[in-house]
Amino acid sequence: MSESSTALNSSPLPEAPGDRFYRTVWRWHFYAGLFVIPFMLILAITGIIYLFKPQLDAAMYRNWMFVQPGAATLPYTEQVQAAQQVYPDAAISKFTPNVAANRSAEIGVTTADERNLVVFVDPYTGQVLGSQDEDKNFQAIARTIHGNLMIGIGGDYLVELAACWGLVLLISGLYLWLPRRRFSLFGTLIPRLWSKNKRIFWRDLHAVPGFYGVLLVSFLILTGLPWSAFWGDTFAQVWGRFPAQMWDDVPQSTLVTGALNQRGTKLVPWAVEQLPMPQSNSAGHENHSGHSHTAAQTAPDQVSPSIAVNLNSVVALAQEKGAPPGFSVVFPEGETGVYTVSAFPNDPTQEITLHIDQYSGEVLADVRWNDYGLVPRAVELGVAIHMGKYFGLTNQLLMLFAALVTISLSVTGAVMWWLRRPKGVGLVGAPALPSYVQHWRVPLAIVAVLGLAFPLVGISLVGVLLLDYLLLSRIPALKRVFG
User: Fold this and answer.
1) Do residues 359 and 415 both lie within one domain?
2) Which of 67, 116, 297, 471 could bridge across to 134 with cysteines, CB 3.0–4.6 Å?
């Protein structure tokens, strides 16, 4: 978040240990910034777009999302049939009942050419209002760019690496922001925007807002990591598990609940992604669906025995079990598939995941906030705040501020480099490498801590250090270009 006021071409700083370490941190900060800035801009801009998804969706798709309330809604099965009449060759994948009296129902379908569509249906009349490609609409594209740059798993790793290096930038920037000689209010806590010196002006515009926003930007990065490919998956494997005795008597498939998130948008919370997916007991029920069943009495956790197990009864059961408005019902796949009811509301304490046998209507798994461990609860709260969902518009504005600080740090950092760059073709203008090799303990300790917490950073940081000390500082041509 700062840089030395010493010109790059001036005499080197005194080789005191503190100055040596300062220059090392400054050099790391410089190179980390060159790598991170493009990614931070992409993440911040796409994050802002997705942050205001509710407002943007309501404005862009008003004619599809909103309806005139009627006296009574049609049965849910009839609402689905209305979508099937428009897309007769499509497979129904999920159903979301209307969340309010003036809202449409949303039916997820997968077409023959493997497009994932959301069909908006008037729940009172059964009229199909329109459809949206889950993977190619404005918000979905922003989300995909935000997650993997639209280039798949490789992009996911790049985004994760850049985000983790963003933490390195914030830590090193905070160190560079600290006054080196004596404290001054101006330039430390108040930017000197009146300065006619461009370097001072841009340095303060970079460092001071960075200081005020460092915690929020760090929060954004840390709460986004649970969704990442490498760190997030590893983290979930360790912390996202549940006691096996919760479903000792339930037949399990080889899938986990997180597999449902492969269908377009996120359907299930992070905390249940490692939850084993149970199986329906298909014995004696092959090739039958929507049937009624008999029992001596109604089990407390299943559809009434006198009612057919279908979408209507599954939605009714979910409502009886306290699923909040906005929950989705994912349809079974195959003879052993289950109905999955998933609620991913603004308040994570209201999250619920139900797996229901498609034949008996029995609830095979019922996982809620109280079943989460301490770490999954923290993750779910963090994700809700990260997405601007937890405390309404104030939450959105707070995260908007964090995103704008990220953009400001990126832009002002690039401007500072441009103003300080040496006049020469192909010269990067990095801060000079300190002329010592014996004081490695602090840098190596930092590498070790970061490497343990964020393996991708640790691996790349070791590579950068070796490249810097063994090649860039020893080969004259490279040293001239990279500093």
Assistant:
1) no
2) 116
Chosen domain end from 315, 350, 383? 383
Sheet holding 338-343, edge to edge: 128-133, 116-121, 105-110, 91-96, 328-330, 338-343, 352-357, 363-368
Q: What is the pLDDT of residues 255-294, one digit of tens each?
A: 888 888 865 577 888 888 888 889 998 765 554 444 444 3
Among 364, 383, 402, the domain-final residue is: 383
pLDDT at 298: 40
Question: What's phi and psi for 334, nearest 5 deg?
Answer: 80, 180
Hey, which bits of 266-405 come out as E strands? Answer: 276-278, 328-330, 338-343, 352-357, 363-368
Total of domains in the chain: 3
The residue among 252, 263, 261 whose CA lies nearest residue 226 is 261
Alpha-carbon Rg for the chain, nearest whole angstrom, is 27
The whole-number pLDDT of residue 281 equals: 84
pLDDT of 439 reads 55
Supply the pTM of this predicted model. 0.87
- Residues 213, 110 share a domain: no
